[in-house]
Every structure is written in structure tokens, then in C-alpha cells.
């Protein structure tokens, strides 16, 4: 078995066309506009294999002013090879907040598994966004930063 060699790099507005080739959802007008906004703000990453995009992640600060992973997508052929986890970890390292949120549909079992593997925990549920498929809210809490106290020898 060969190991997949991928590069996770920042994504920009110019990437939207190539990302649209792997994810048809980007052709939807509302989603495409949102993706363009996040790409142009530098809140996105691309997974490249042999120089071609095979996945991406979009983030925002739109969840009650907290970091939110808006979307993680990996092309079918490259799934279950660690790219989703790598993209998710990249999203985590790109913010300074003490927590990061992700929302997913109840029906998205693969993403639930990925979030569990990445250390996210359930935080809530939102009904009535999609008929018969509530949105689950997950959070990953960061450990508090270390505080150093100046050593003072005993008197």
C-alpha cells in the first residue's frame, strides 16, 4: 500500500474554478458566493496531490464570532486516506480562539467519525434548517495556554 502524498496550502479566490471541478456544490449560487468570500479572505485551504486540488476546507468567524469550519470536502477517490483530518487540523491551527466549531447534518456519519477522531465533542443540535435532517454542533476546546511564573528562590 502506498502512502498518499498531499500538500495542504492556503487557498485563494483564484482556486475557486479548480475547486468547482471537484465539488459540484460550488456551482450553487449561494454556496459559490459564500465560498468566494471566504477564499478571498484567506480563510481556506486546499489539499493538492501531484499539483491538483483534491480537497478543501473553508472557515469563518461567523458562529457567534467564533471560528467555524464551514465546509470540508475531499474528492471521493481520495477519501479515507487522512486528507479530511489533515484539512481539519490545518483549520484548527489557523485561529487563536480557545475553541472551534463545526456543524454537520445528522445523516453525515462519515463526518461524525472524523470529528470524533479529531477530538471534537457534541455541543448541541439545531432543528428546522433542513427537513428531517437536523444540524449537529460540535466543538473542540483548546487547552488553556501555559502561564509561566518567575522563579524566586526561598528567602
Furnish the topology, listing elements before pairings.
Blueprint: E1 7-10, H1 16-22, H2 29-40, E2 44-49, E3 52-63, E4 66-74, H3 83-93, E5 99-105, H4 109-117, E6 121-126, E7 135-141
Parallel strand pairs: 4-5
Antiparallel strand pairs: 1-2, 2-3, 3-4, 5-7, 6-7
Task: Describe this protein's structure.
By secondary structure, the protein is an alpha+beta fold. The protein has a single domain, classed as Gcn5-related N-acetyltransferase (GNAT) (Aminopeptidase), CATH 3.40.630.30. It is 25% helix and 33% strand. It is built from four helices and seven strands; from the N terminus they run βααβββαβαββ. It has a seven-stranded mixed beta sheet with strand order 1-2-3-4-5-7-6, with helices on both faces. Strand 6 and strand 7 form a beta hairpin. The radius of gyration is 18 Å and the shape is globular.
Brief rundown of the structure:
25% of the residues lie in helices and 33% in strands. By secondary structure, it is of the alpha+beta class.
Please give a handful of descriptors for the protein shown.
155 residues, alpha+beta, Aminopeptidase, 4 helices
Classification by helices and strands: alpha+beta
What number of structural domains do the residues give?
A: 1
- Name of the CATH class: Alpha Beta
* CATH homologous superfamily descriptor: Gcn5-related N-acetyltransferase (GNAT)
Strand order of the largest sheet: 1-2-3-4-5-7-6
- Total helical segments: 4
| Average pLDDT over all residues | 89
Share of residues in helices: 25-40%
Question: What gap, in angstroms, lies between the N and C termini?
Answer: 63 Å
CATH topology: Aminopeptidase
What is the architecture at the second tier of CATH? 3-Layer(aba) Sandwich
- Residue windows where pLDDT falls under 50 for at least 5 positions: none
Would you count the extended β strands for me? 7
Largest sheet, in brief, is:
7 strands, mixed
Measured on Cα atoms, how large is the radius of gyration?
A: 18 Å
DSSP strand content: 25-35%
Global shape: globular
Which H/E pattern describes the elements? Answer: EHHEEEHEHEE
Amino acid at each position: 500500500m502506498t502512502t498518499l502524498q498531499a500538500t495542504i496550502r492556503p487557498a485563494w479566490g483564484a482556486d475557486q474554478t479548480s475547486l468547482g471541478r471537484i465539488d459540484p456544490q460550488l456551482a450553487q449560487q449561494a454556496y459559490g458566493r459564500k465560498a468566494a468570500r471566504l477564499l478571498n479572505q484567506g480563510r481556506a485551504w486546499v489539499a493538492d496531490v501531484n499539483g491538483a486540488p483534491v480537497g478543501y476546507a473553508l472557515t469563518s468567524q461567523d458562529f457567534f464570532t467564533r471560528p467555524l469550519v464551514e465546509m470540508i470536502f475531499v474528492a471521493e477517490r481520495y477519501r479515507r486516506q487522512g486528507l479530511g483530518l489533515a484539512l481539519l487540523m490545518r483549520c484548527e491551527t489557523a485561529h487563536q480562539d480557545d475553541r472551534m466549531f463545526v456543524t454537520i447534518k445528522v445523516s453525515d456519519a462519515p463526518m461524525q467519525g472524523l470529528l470524533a477522531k479529531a477530538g471534537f465533542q457534541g455541543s448541541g443540535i439545531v432543528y428546522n434548517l433542513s427537513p428531517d435532517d437536523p444540524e449537529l454542533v460540535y466543538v473542540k476546546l483548546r487547552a488553556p495556554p501555559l502561564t509561566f511564573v518567575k522563579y524566586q528562590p526561598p528567602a
